[in-house]
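ok so for the tutorial part 2 we go from a plain amino acid sequence to predicted structure tokens. step 1 is just haveing the sequence, like this:
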Amino acid sequence: MDNNQAKTVIDVQTGEVEAGSGKVVLRSDGIGSCVVIAAFDTKAKIGAIAHVMLPGRAPKESTPQKLRYAANAIDEVIKKMSSLGAEDMCDVGFCLIGGGNVLKRADDKVSKDNIDSVVEILSSKGMRVVAESLGGEKRRSATLNVETGCVSFSEGDDSERVLWEARLTAI
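step 2 — the prediction. this is what the tokens look like for a chain of 171 residues:
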């Protein structure tokens, strides 16, 4: 690898979807009850991250910050990856990170609802979940190195570790 070319790091905030190819790193921090969806196309070498805050679909298409909702964010992931050259969503591996009860509430339903919604929507679209780090009580961070197809995460103050590495195929 040519070390003279720096990677572009894109921070993905709550309710955002970002995608890229090449020397791009997509990052999302402060993941509590939210679920981060990291998607990577092994053939086209295109990746995306969505930081989902709410289950289901936004009540109206014109809803401000509609990408906070699981269904809208997943649609946007597909749209952005397709616009960058992803042709077959069967080549895309989806990793799920978050959905923790970080406030340690006995009656917490938000994190479970977020997890269930994301899993159900991806399943209904025939999308392949390849790895997950969900639940628990610790905040997380997530990183997708688009150049290498590596998804990593950290929990609490722990060191970052690999969740999934794509098997890159020749185009």
